[in-house]
Design goal:
heterodimer; A: Rossmann fold; Rossmann fold; five-stranded parallel sheet; B: alpha/beta; nine-stranded mixed sheet; binds flavin-adenine dinucleotide
Chain lengths: 320, 244
């Protein structure tokens, strides 16, 4: 049995989790078994049934009111208990920092091997082998995964789901929840609303120190708006508080893998590229033709961001 | 207050990665090793907490003797003593198992480490350790203050952050801006030489093995678009790259 840890955001299954469900269903096919999705928190049955469209035969839904707010320890306990109760051998999740926190504790409870940043379906010809991205995208490793239970965290865009039109059956579960799982008290949540989630985004427009200051971000935001893209930034930009910290991409920030990443006034330091090198198409706009980013990019414009950005926005809007 | 700071020893972030022995080993020639950048933040915060209200900091590395310069550097930055579990840190569960074993012996109030290592980027060791010890774990923590037995933290969440409090003992995966990286001073470097470093054997065995490494396919040339015709980029992204 394959179990997919499914993340819910605003009542809907996250796109990355739909990919994980599809990946899990492919692994299930290879192993001659079925895929079950585990959804924790608030969501309608009709929404959860969509997991079937991506290959899950069944959805287990833990909807205790104590689980409404994401709590990695409580979710991990539900995940570990579910793995035991259905006898799952492989757990699949989309890689995210919340999923990491959840699968980590479940791994501790289950003595499971955990491998992160999986980039392909497993090779079962000789044991259980997966390819993982290492050194923040600079290399790959073929890893043999042993252990009775295996937990795989997959990267974005590893599979291109083909929707089957099937509907999954949804079954409610009520696992026991120990009091000590709620030891932390969340006193405040500060979350940007109406923003496109950066790790989930297919299109990203990102700004570096070349944007010169937080007051100059409007042209970049306009392009992102026109494209329906998420916004990101380089490390110095978030260090200087020009942009919020959760927008910082790179080796020490969010790792993104969108279809399109547009870098505006970013030099292309190796630590920055490490966080964006899994993007399908990289575009750089920089006034310095010697900027290292040009060596890593697919398309480049040598020019002043403040002249180029409005032109791009205009072209996008004209094309709509 | 006893703080355990777990550090990884990883190639410098500017390193060019390559492999040897038929792509079965990392090529260490010419590669400089550093304390994992996230671990370095955890260490820096531990030293600040020690300066503020007193603490004993033990630095722990699961790794072979090659990591000793990084351990000495952590001692120079302000840790009081060090433990090295003498084994190749091959997988997350295995490393967590070693850390948990040391932690059980030491009765630490805080176990700090980076949110992830910069080699395998798995980001799960802190959680596994927390579960093994039966204490809470949080990550990625970007602010940490102590008020007696209570930790006041800010944790990054997707699209924002949340403030939370919990009682010690805790395991935390740290990231900036929890503190600024510290550079050891001359006195620190001198005293680090004589601070105790205990080497102990590992227990258990790894759950994964790496069979082979590979590098990504080289990128093709960058297609340049003149700034005066910037709007052509949008056309190319639609028709050629097909990402719009
Ligand atoms: C351990 C470690 C970890 C790190 N992790 C990260 C990380 O995760 N993410 C990250 O981003 N960095 C990281 N860094 C920092 C990294 O080395 C670089 O310093 C950083 O990425 C540079 O940011 P930048 O490109 O915005 O700024 P700069 O390097 O200052 O580049 C600004 C660019 O803007 C261009 N420019 C200026 N004005 C204009 C204009 N009007 N129009 C067009 N272009 C213009 C310039 O030509 C220049 O290329 C890390 C560093 C270390 C040591």
């Amino acid at each position: 049995m394959i179990l997919i840890f499914t993340e819910i955001a605003d009542g809907a299954i996250k796109k990355s989790s739909l990919e994980a469900i599809y990946y899990g269903s492919k692994v299930a096919e290879m192993m001659g078994t079925t895929a079950t999705a585990l959804a924790i928190g608030n969501a309608d049955e009709a929404e959860l049934a969509k997991a079937g469209n991506f290959g899950a035969a069944k959805v287990l839904h833990a909807n205790d009111t104590k689980l409404t707010n994401p709590n990695s320890m409580a979710y991990a306990s539900v995940l570990a208990e579910t793995v035991k109760s259905i006898g799952a051998k492989v757990v699949v999740t989309a890689k995210s920092s919340f999923a990491d926190a959840v699968t980590a504790r479940a791994a501790g409870a289950l003595k499971a091997a955990v491998v992160g940043n999986v980039t392909e379906l497993p090779d079962l010809s000789n044991g259980f082998q997966v390819k993982v991205s290492i050194f923040t995208g600079k290399a790959f490793a073929d890893v043999n995964v042993n252990g009775d239970v295996k937990i795989l965290a997959i990267k974005k865009n590893v599979v291109a789901p083909i929707e089957s039109g099937n509907i999954a059956t949804v079954e409610n579960i009520s696992p026991a929840l120990a009091d000590n799982l709620f030891a932390a008290k969340v006193t405040e949540t500060i979350k940007a609303t109406g923003m496109i989630s950066l790790p989930e985004a297919d299109l990203v427009v990102s700004g570096g120190r070349g944007m010169k200051g937080p007051e100059n971000w409007q042209p970049l935001l306009d392009l992102a708006d026109a494209l329906g893209a998420a916004t990101a930034c380089s490390k110095p930009v978030s260090d200087l508080d020009w942009r919020p910290h959760h927008e910082h991409v790179g080796q020490t920030g969010v790792k993104v893998a969108p279809n399109l990443y547009i870098a505006c006034g970013i030099s292309g330091a190796i630590q920055h590229l490490a966080g964006v090198n899994s993007s399908k198409v990289l575009v750089v706009i920089n006034k310095d033709p010697e900027a290292p980013f040009f060596k890593a990019a697919d398309y480049g414009i040598v020019g002043d961001v403040f002249e180029v950005l409005p032109k791009l926005t205009k072209a996008v809007l004209a094309n709509k | 207050m006893k703080i355990l700071v777990c550090i990884s020893s990883v190639p410098d972030t500017t390193s060019k990665i390559s492999f040897t022995d038929g792509d079965t080993k990392l090529n260490k020639a010419g590669v400089t090793y550093i304390i994992g950048p996230y671990d370095d933040y955890a260490l820096a915060r531990a030293v600040e907490l020690k300066e503020q209200s007193g603490a004993i900091i033990t630095v722990l590395n699961v790794g072979n003797a090659d990591a000793e310069p990084q351990i000495r550097k952590a001692l120079a930055i302000g840790a009081d003593d060090a433990i090295r579990v003498d084994v190749e840190p091959t997988d997350s569960y295995f490393v967590a198992e070693q850390i948990a074993a040391v932690a059980k012996e030491g009765n630490y109030d805080l176990i700090l480490m980076g949110r992830e290592t910069s080699d395998y980027n798995s980001g799960v060791v802190h959680g596994i350790v927390g579960e093994m010890l039966g204490i809470p774990s949080f990550s990625p923590v970007m602010q940490l203050d102590l008020n007696g037995n209570e930790a006041i933290m800010t944790r990054e969440i997707e699209g924002g952050k949340e403030k939370l409090t919990a009682s010690l003992p805790l395991v935390l995966g740290c990231q900036e801006p929890i503190a600024e990286w510290k550079i050891p001073n001359m006195r620190g470097i001198m005293t680090a030489r004589t601070k105790p470093l205990k080497v102990i054997p590992a227990a258990g065995s790894a759950l994964t093995t790496t069979e082979k490494y590979s590098l990504p396919a080289p990128k093709g040339a960058c297609k340049m678009i003149p700034a005066e015709e910037a709007e052509k980029l949008i056309e190319l992204l639609k028709t050629e790259a097909k990402v719009l």
